[in-house]
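Thread: quick sanity check before group meeting

JM: Hey all, I'm pulling together slides for Thursday and realized we never actually wrote out the predicted structure for the chain we discussed last week. Dropping the sequence here so it's in one place. If anyone has concerns about the input, flag it before I start.
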Amino acid sequence: MKIKFLIITFLAFLFLSCEEKLKPSIINLPNQQIPSQESWDATIIFSDSGKVRAIVKANHIMVFQDQEITILNQGFRVDFYDENGKHTSYLIADSGRVIERTRNLEAYGNIIAVSSEGTKVETSKLFWDNDRKKVRSDAFVKVTSPNEVLQGYGFEADQDLKNYVVYKVSGQAKVEEK
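JM (edit): ok, ran it. Output follows.
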């Protein structure tokens, strides 16, 4: 009786220990969907002629070298500096992408851009044109400056937010009487 119990126990143990180990699933993705570089909690410093022009802090960055695109997601912040190294503005967004060939930036999500003079732009979509040194949006935008609060659909400004135009505008402004 003891021998039967030992044989059954041994066979049960042998049967249970012979299972095939699980292999991780492998998904073949097209090369366009695989980044060539990937970073978390990254800080990137952009300089021109040895002078810092922008500092990007991103929670997640994916670089696609073949497509010349860098994706910023999970939130990022860009601090901009003038040619003298003075901080001029910053931009916060949920996600974005940089076109490497042109160095243009597209930002998406909850976007807030604030100049050192206190002008604040809020929108859901913003495009920075590196060649023209201008920012623009075709989405709803709210611009708050020390003198006015404007809202509208469409926006264009210089990169320091000193001169701007809001399209299809509504809002309030202080007008000085002369």
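AS: nice. Residues 139 and 153 are 5 Å apart (CA to CA). Helices lie at 2-17.
JM: adding both to the slides.
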